Task: structure prediction
Amino acid sequence: MDEVTDADFAAEVIASELPVLVEFTADWCPPCRQMGPVLSALATEEADRFRVVQLNVDRNPGTTNAYRVLSMPTFLLFRDGEPVRSMVGARPKRRLLEEVSDALRGRPAEQVGTVRTDYS
Result:
């Protein structure tokens, strides 16, 4: 699995022909380490559909701040240079693949915990 940096994020993610799943990760994050084998397997199994890369938040604060990433791991799925899905927290491979597949098909994310703010 490839690692991207602030310096090559635009070329590797934004300009990618394939969709790209970016894991915002940190060395000190146990759930991030837990996701390593899951992401490596997805990177191999789904290489024809999308790329999987990691970005270390401590070494790459520019991109981390630009996408307002506050928790690790955070997964952002980019398609055609735009983030189309955000997922926070470790999850099983099957669930992560379902969420990515739904986003690639254009299905909206489930509105879990949505608070209604317009009472008109």
